Each structure stands twice: as structure tokens, then as C-alpha cells.
Amino acid sequence: MNLQSLFILKECLENVAFAGTETLDDDLAVRNAVEVFARHTEEAPIFAHICAEAQAMLAAGNDDRPGRLLDVLTLVNAAERAYSEADVPGEPAAPEPGVGCCVDAPYSRLRPVIDALRGSGNARLSILEEMWDAHSAYFGDYRVLPYLAGALGDVNEELEELLAIILTSLGKRAVPELKAGFKPDGKREMSRRVYWIARLAGAEENEWLLSVLPESRREVRESVIAALGVAQENAALLIELYRNESGKCRDAALRALSHMEDEESRALWSAELETRPDCPPCLEGVDSPLAADMAAQAIRDVFTEALERGRNELNQAELLTLAHAIYAAYGKYSAEMRETWLWCAERMDALDALRADRTVRQWDLSAAEMLEKCLLETVLWNPCEGVRALAEELAQRLPGCFLGAAVLTDLLARPGEAFARYNKYIVRNGLLRRESAAERANRVQIMRALAAVRWDKNDGRHIPFSRKDALTGAPAGRVYHLPEFDPRWAETLDNPKVNDDGAVFDLQNPWSMSKQLFRMEWIAPPEPEVPSEPAEK
């Protein structure tokens, strides 16, 4: 069998992949390689298949050539691997579909992306952002995908956020490359690969997850166990893992069980909440009916115990338990969660008295304000119809506490109507008119909603702070532009007759438990620059 012609054809095709398929018309080396290879098509059926695909590539138009080139290279690589590993003659198995795509661009254009992905330092982030904005297709190219998977081990949070957006856009196309070279005893990179395989492919990769579980170690094992929540059929296995594992792996099994819908998983979670008040972190970033119900139960349990005790000061451990319970509720909605919100609304006066004791620093939110912030964050993370209706209902009951959530839902869903609907709550002070305490509370609520909006100088539009994916807690998109934003908001709040006292929540940091002063420049676009007149000579 003449394998030399196969190797020559492969080398020529790889040169085309690096140079770009636009060079094919003038590339005599490829045409000669195909012609020589055609003389050996009778030696193996796969050779005939490769030759037919290669000739189809040469005859195709410019738009079809990149895809056909990738198909031919996939066949050539499969044939080379099969014959190089086999000690006996035989026909290689049919190759699997290729990974990624083949962009009609030379390697020199992809090199900056590859160098940035495999490099280090903060400077590469700006390169990747620019390339993603200008040439997003490059990141799906088969020459780039291996380095995209390798970059998952990086600890830079901004890079991780960008990679989340890129992988989400690629979808299942990225899964084969994420599985290639997987090491079950690896570290952060392999752990992140498991996370993204489960997120992109879900239950379709359940068999693969089960196959790597026995050999997985440390943080990779934790990720594999957590990923098993993608399939309801894993409920019994997860309960067994929960009982036999320890530490983070046990918590991962508990987290995965919050995706299950069976009664045994629900009973296990209810019992866990009763014995371990520190377990709500396992619910963070999980959007399922069980997770929403358990987060609601955790909030009720914490508040019931605090109110029955009759002590208004909470120490650091108690506050941390409360913060985890409330943070677990971000982005969640269910009938049980709605009932918990209404239950809390009836006790807001008592909850407003629950505050940190003197030993806790940088924590100036009361329990009631933590709930206000939670509802605002929930609107940003998961502005579904149920959440919007809940915000409207709570705003009608207690506008001084929840009006901001209703304002924020309108800013996201119907911004054109928001100003006309809520401008009436803003009081202009005069000789015969002064803002009352109730009116001040409503104005502060509006300010807290507007504090979620900022001006994006790069795109010249208003955006809210990063919206989160309710399922994972990862950014749903790097930038979410408001359809429109009424400039009269800035004009109104900048009016000297409108009070500007009051503090807002830091919605850019969901874990922040302190307030800050409102800054008009957050919502007001900068004044346009007026070109200066040339100086007189």
C-alpha cells in the first residue's frame, strides 16, 4: 500500500489551510498531489473516498472550499491514524465528523488569537476582545479551538467571562475539542472543561460523564459529580455519592440533586436544610423548581429563627448564613418562592431592625434591604414573566421597599413607558411643597433602579450591569443594551429642586452588602466634545 502519496497530500492540504483556500486556484502542488493520489484509489475504499472529496474541493466555489477542505483533512487524518496504528492490513473505520470549521483566512490572521490564548498577562485580553468583536468566526476555526480549550485553566476573571461568551456562541461544536485530551486527574482546566461540556451538551454527554467519573480526582471529580445533575436518571447515583463522598464532592452531589425532580431528592434536601443551615451555597446559580423551593425554605428558616429569638443584632456567622440564603435566591422563581416573598413583605418592619452588630465591618444593609437588593438582582438575572409580576405586586404592597424592582422591570421590558409611569413619584420642592418621608422612600427606590444602568462609552448606549444566566450564574452576554433610555431621567434627577440624598445598592457586585452614594454620571451620557476653534495667527 502506497502511504507516501497520502502523506504528501496531507502536507499540501495543511499548507492550504495555513495560507487560505483562496490560493487553491494557483496551487499546482495540491493539484499534482491529488492527481498522484488518484492512481492509488483501488488500494482501499477510504482512498477513493478521500480522492472524491479532494476533487470536489478543487471544483467547488470559493464559499464552499473551506468546509470541503476541512472534510478532506478529517478523512486524511483518520486514514493516517488508522494505518499507522494498525499492524495488520485492513480498512480504517469511517472517520468522525471534523471539529469546528475552517475559516477562509490564512494562519497569519489567526496567529494573534492563538498567541493571546496560549500566552499570559492582561494585555492579551484586549486583543481577544477586539478579535472577537471584529472576527468572531475565527474562534470556531479548527486551528484555534484547541487553544480555546487550553485557556480555560486561566484564573483571569475577565478572560473567563469572555471565554464563556465565546463557548456559548459556539455551542455543541466546541464539545469534541473540550473532550480531546481530557485528563480526569487534571486540575482547573480539566474541571472547567467538564463544566462546559455539561453546559453545552447537557444530558447528551451523560454517558461520557459516567465513564470519566471512576478515574476523576480532586476538583475534576467535584465538577463531574456536579455535572451529573444534567440527567434525571442519575438521581439514585447522586444520592449514593452524597452518602459516600465528603467535603466539596459531597456538596457537589447535593448541588446536582437540586436539579432532580423525584421525591427522594426533595426529602433529602429538606432534611439537609434542617441540620445544616450553611448548605444554601449549594443552590447558588441553580435554576430548577426544587432549587427555588429550597432557597425559599432557607430564607424562611433563617428569618423565623431570628425573629423568634427577638434579638436584632446578628454576628458575622449569622449574617453569612443569611447572606448565603438570600444569595441562593438570586434569579429563582417558583410558587413557593412567591409565597416566601409575600411572607417577608408582611414582616418588613421587623426585618428592617435586623442588622449587623458592631463587630462586623463593611456591612450596612439591614435584612429588609438585603431582600430589596435580592429582588433587584433577581430582575437582572432572570426577568421572566413571573418575576416581573412579583415585582409589580410587591411594589403595590410596599412601594417604599420594592418600587425599585418594578421600575427596573419596566426599564428592561418597556423602557419607553417607564418615565411617564414613575416620574410622578419624583417631587420638585418649592415654597409650598416639600418631599415627605414616604415620597423620599419612593424616590430612593427609583434611584436604586437607575443605579443598575450605566453609560457604555464604547458603544454609546445605556446598558444595565451584567445580566446573569439564571442556570449557571455566568454572564448571559457581555453587553446587554437597553432598547432605549429616556434622557429625562438624568434631567429630572439633576434638577436642583429634586433631592439627591439617599444611597443605592452595588448591583455590579451581587455579594456587596454595603450602600453607596448615587452618582448621576452612571446614567447620564457624557457631554459631546465641542471642537475648539483654531487659534488666530
Structure in words:
It is a single chain. The protein is mainly alpha-helical and 537 residues long. Among the domains are: 82 residues, no CATH class; 126 residues, no CATH class. 55% of the residues lie in helices and 3% in strands. It contains 25 helices and 6 strands. The strands form 3 sheets. It has a two-stranded parallel ribbon with strand order 1-2. A two-stranded antiparallel ribbon has the order 3-4. The longest helix has 21 residues. The protein is globular and about 95 Å long. About 3% of the residues have low confidence.
Helix- and strand-based class? Answer: mainly alpha
In helices, the fraction of residues equals 55-70%
Distance between the termini: 85 Å
The rounded Rg comes to: 29 Å
What's the total helix number?
Answer: 25
Determine the mean pLDDT: 82
**Shape, principal axes of CA atoms:** globular
How many beta-strand elements?
Answer: 6
- Please state how the strands of the largest beta sheet are arranged side by side: 1-2
Strand content of the residues, in percent? under 5%
Q: Which characteristics define this entry?
A:
537 residues, mainly alpha, two-stranded parallel sheet, two-stranded antiparallel sheet, 6 strands
Helices, strands, pairings?
Layout: H1 4-19, H2 28-37, H3 45-59, H4 65-85, H5 107-118, H6 123-134, H7 145-150, H8 157-170, H9 175-179, H10 188-201, H11 206-212, H12 218-227, H13 235-244, H14 247-257, H15 263-275, H16 289-309, E1 313-314, H17 316-328, H18 335-345, H19 348-352, E2 355-356, H20 367-381, H21 385-397, H22 399-413, H23 415-422, H24 437-450, E3 453-456, E4 461-464, H25 488-493, E5 503-505, E6 515-517
Parallel strand pairs: 1-2
Antiparallel strand pairs: 3-4, 5-6
